[in-house]
Amino acid sequence: MVSEELTNWLRVGKQKSAVITSLYKPLTSVEVCTRVRKSNPSIFPQDVSAWFTRFCEKNLLYCLNPEDKTGRLYFVTDLGRKIVEESFGIVISPLRTDVIWEQYVTIVRAKRRRAVLLEIAEMEFAGHKEIIAMRIKQRLRKKHPVCLNAAIRAVKDLKKLCLIRQVAETKKRGLSIYGLTSEGKLIAEELLR
Fold first, then answer.
1. Is residue 80 domain-shared with residue 132, that is, in the same domain?
2. Domain membership flag for residue 40
3. pTM score, two decimals?
4. What residues make up the domain containing 20?
5. Whether residues 53 and 114 fall in one domain
6. I need a surface site. Which of 21, 60, 115, 162 has the fewest CB within 10 A?
7. Cα 28 from Cα 107, distance rounded (Å)
8. 3-state SS, one letter per residue, for the chain
9. For the segment 10-39, what is each residue's pLDDT rounded down to a tens digit?
């Protein structure tokens, strides 16, 4: 049985319980705030950050990228998962061992890279054959306005991170056609979870 004192402490307070139960995957304080605001409109990112600090002090959370000043991602520790399950009946799965979390952090912290990776994943999962930078930009236009140069830069960054690869070239103009690598698929699946 886990610490009854921690369990009781966690149950008291709407913000505290909402914040800890929303961490089913690694998230930043802003992402948690956005999720929690639906049920608790008076919460702000600085409130979430303060709760993260307290949770870390009590060994309920840990930071995946503590060296970064902004965009820190947090996840629940083994003790935290046990206490959340005991307190609220919510089962939080541990982090997958097959995902390279340093790459995940790099993607989550860069909105454009994240959007491009998810767009490539969506296109690939839907069976699109020619995933080129121009098509990615066109599809992103509705969700995340992005110019072609920014889309190309994000594609190059994703290629350097080995999350996508060039699978072929178009016949007419010789444009690069991209596809996800196995690491890219894992990260895309985790982002979509």
1. no
2. yes
3. 0.86
4. 4-88
5. no
6. 162
7. 12
8. CCCHHHHHHHHCCHHHHHHHHCCCCCECHHHHHHHHCCCCCCCCHHHHHHHHHHHHHCCCEEECCCCCCCCCCEEECHHHHHHHHHHHCCCCCCCCCCCCHHHHHHHHCCHHHHHHHHHHHHHHHCCCCCCCHHHHHHHHCCCCCCCHHHHHHHHHHHHHCCCEEEEEECCCCCCEEEEECHHHHHHHHHHHC
9. 888 888 999 999 999 999 999 999 999 988
